[in-house]
Specification:
There is one protein chain. This protein has helices at about 5-15, 30-50, 70-85, 95-100, 110-115, 125-140, 145-150, 155-165, 175-190, 195-205, 210-215, 220-230, 235-245, 250-255, 265-275, 285-310, 315-320, 330-340, 355-360, 365-380, 380-390, 405-415, 420-425, 435-445, 445-455, 460-465, 475-485, and strands at about 390, 400. It is mostly helical and about 500 residues long. Among the domains are: about 155-245; about 285-445, no CATH class; about 445-490, no CATH class. The chain has a two-stranded antiparallel sheet with strand order 1-2. Helix 8 packs across helix 9 (about 175-190), helix 9 packs antiparallel against helix 10 (about 195-205) and helix 24 (about 435-445) runs antiparallel to helix 25 (about 445-455). It starts with a helix and ends in an 8-residue tail after the last helix. This is Spermatogenesis-defective protein 39 homolog. Its main location: cytoplasm. It is found in: Cytoplasmic vesicle; Early endosome; Late endosome.
């Protein structure tokens, strides 16, 4: 609906808004007065709407100046002037009464300043700001002590103390060599292996190897921890460099020798052991490494020959007692037992001969005797067992002798199910009478028991033993003959 010219003139004269004209020049003082009146009207609206809050709250602008002050008004007017200068077009002032009605607005001036909306469909600035504060509130409420670990400049001693307490600290801030060494010294003084290891890991990462090795030479406790750490983490290369730098050549050689444990192929292991022979071992260790290489080389040769013979099926012993496992990588005594079991009668010049093994590896007489006895008794080769004990004295007479006590020989034979006649021959060679009687009774060697009681001239023990044998048996008749013999002078 278009207004008439008279109505428009009446509107401009009655309203506080004035039409724009190029001839009007703004008076600064009048504008300040109008701004003051606008601020006062806004303050009245805020005070009328604030029924719940009794405290007087001073309202400030985003710049921190009180709202309604002269400086604030001037800045507001200056900002509006700049905006007008930037917009040369004439402002369009809506004249419909509905647009000027306060009741249709979803927000009021008082609610804008108080952060409250009169409609539920709108969210005020203060509500949005409070929500953002609420999201970050747990982070803002953290105690200052939690941030202290990251912002404080701890000394090396304080850092070690915090490590002992299990608190997280950063070691990266210790840049100089002096600080790093102080950190290590305080860790060693704390006598805590975990702290020492943690500091050593940092030094390993931040120092050159030459510098680290040089400093560890004068710190034996830290050095032991570092060697243990490298061993557990299997950093063999760095550990070898460390031992070489420290001049510990024997330890370096032993460490390199242990690498053979990870080699599975026998030929590759043999070649590796051969290369280890030139390492700077001690005299004793060098002999062990030489024996290991020689033994593995011999085992490879014997294993290849025996596997071929077993497949051929022409050797009787492989048919009676098939091989249950390979001889490769077996210990020395196991290899000797194998040779005594499958190659006992071979000449000494062959690699598989037990005598050749004994001579090459300097096996003691007692160890060789026990191993050969167990192997031949397992095969029930009693003639070979008897030959082990046969010896000659200086007069040329043969007699049985053993580097092993005869009661232990009897135990070995009894475990391999030796016949009573064989057991009886060796039970009789036991020097101790009580032990001889005990073993003879246990193994039912009646002739040994009867002969021992006769030599002891103990008639009562002989009579008592007569009741333990079978009636009418040969042992009973032998006891009766001894009891009726008038030439024996019994002691009881």
């Amino acid at each position: 609906m278009m207004r008439s010219k008279a109505d428009e003139e009446e509107y401009w004269h009655s309203s506080k808004f004035k039409a724009f004209t190029f001839e009007d020049e703004d008076d600064e003082l009048s504008r300040l007065k109008e701004s003051k009146q606008a601020v006062n009207s806004i303050r009245q609206l805020v005070e009328e709407d604030d029924d719940d809050d009794d405290d007087d709250t001073e309202k400030v602008s985003w710049s921190g100046e009180p709202v309604g002050s002269i400086s604030w008004s001037i800045k507001e007017m200056a900002g509006s002037n700049q905006k007008i200068d930037r917009e040369p077009a004439f402002p369009r002032i809506p004249t419909e009464p509905s647009t000027l009605n306060k009741s249709h607005s979803g927000l009021s001036l008082s609610s804008l300043f108080r952060g409250k909306a009169k409609s539920e469909n709108f969210q005020s600035f203060s509500d949005a700001f409070s929500d953002s504060v609420r999201i970050y509130a747990p982070e803002l409420r953290k105690p200052k002590s939690e941030y202290k670990d990251y912002v404080c400049d701890w000394s090396p001693e304080e850092t070690v103390q915090r490590l002992l307490q299990g608190k997280a600290v950063s070691l990266e801030k210790f840049r100089s060599l002096q600080d790093k060494l102080l950190l290590l010294d305080f860790a060693v003084a704390a006598h805590d292996g975990n702290v020492i290891t943690a500091v050593l890991i940092y030094l390993k990462r931040s120092l050159r190897k030459e510098v680290l090795f040089r400093e560890l030479q004068s710190r034996q406790t830290a050095l032991r921890h570092f060697i243990h750490y490298l061993t557990e983490s299997r950093e063999q290369k760095l550990l070898l460099e460390l031992l070489r730098a420290l001049g510990r050549t024997e330890d370096m050689a032993l460490l390199q020798y242990k690498e053979h444990l990870s080699i599975t192929d026998e030929n590759n292991k043999r070649d590796f052991l051969k290369s280890c022979l030139s390492l700077p071992f001690s005299a004793e260790d060098s002999a062990h490494v030489q024996d290991h290489y020689t033994l593995l080389e011999r085992q490879i040769i014997v294993e290849a020959a025996d596997r071929q013979a077993e497949r051929g099926g022409k050797v009787e012993i492989y048919q009676r007692f098939p091989r249950k496992a390979s001889i490769l990588n077996m210990p020395l005594i196991t290899t000797l037992y194998y040779c005594c079991f499958y190659h006992y009668g071979e000449p000494e010049g062959t690699f598989s001969s037990p005598l050749n093994v004994r001579r090459t590896f300097k096996i003691s007489e007692k160890q060789y005797f026990v191993t050969a006895l167990a192997a031949r008794a397992k095969l029930k080769a009693w003639s070979d067992v008897d030959a082990l004990f046969t010896g000659r004295n200086w007069l040329g007479f043969t007699r049985k002798k053993s580097p092993l006590s005869f009661h232990r020989v009897v135990d070995v034979l009894q475990r391999n199910s030796a016949p009573t006649q064989v057991l009886q021959d060796y039970v009789a060679l036991i020097d101790d009478a009580e032990l001889r009687i005990s073993l003879a009774q246990k193994l039912k060697c009646h002739d040994i028991v009867i002969s021992t009681f006769r030599d002891m001239k103990d008639r009562q023990m002989l009579v008592a033993y007569r009741g333990k044998v079978e009636p009418g048996s040969a042992p009973e008749r032998k006891i009766d003959d001894l009891l009726n013999n008038q030439q024996i002078r019994w002691k009881n």
